[in-house]
Amino acid sequence: MSRTLLTRRTVLQAVASMTFAAPFVHSVHAAGRLSFGVTNIMFDSMGAQVQVQNQTDNRLTTWTNALTKHYAVNDTDWQKAIAPQLEGSGGTSLQDVFIVTTHQYTSVPKHSTPPPINPNPIPADYNFGYSSSDLGGILRWVEAGGGLLLFVNHSDFPDQGPGPYWPINDIQLAAALGITTVFAAIPLGGFMMRPNRRAPRQIIEHSEPLGSRNCLPRHQ
Predict the structure, then answer these.
(1) Better-scored residue on pLDDT, 142 or 218
(2) Does residue 168 fall inside a structural domain?
């Protein structure tokens, strides 16, 4: 009789192949608790959106509050190497999911809405480039079953000033994983996106063109 090795990856793959009446996210959480305890989600504290959240208390609040109802959510220590905070030691994994929200410095202007209420603890001249050890460590962690969620901000606007440009470090991380990303921007005035004519009928019938003034489908 063959024996199946139950790892985080195989457990979640088995869960993904089943049909559930409840929302899928709850099922993933249950599988995580079955084998590893509460699922650990770590945000990159050097992510632009996390920096805005820390300065304004008003950017990722809805998302993180929803996550903390089911998972253990924390941030990296920006003063330490990233990979050891994911990998742990002795072949163990400390984190199940790592979320990067554009790995680049950002400072919220005083007159923004909402305005900053906390200073950014990360210095403006801090080096945001990934070290070779972090790139290799994140890759090992992903290959061992870790889940990476990478958000790459838009860039390359016609009126954009001198760099560093938003995605430069995300391009570096994605390349280490064999993924090609590029500098790109969509002008917010006068553009329109529509479903492909060959898309499933349900998508075409229940969506409307996405433009600068309407960004939500008719049916949620």
Answers:
(1) 142
(2) yes
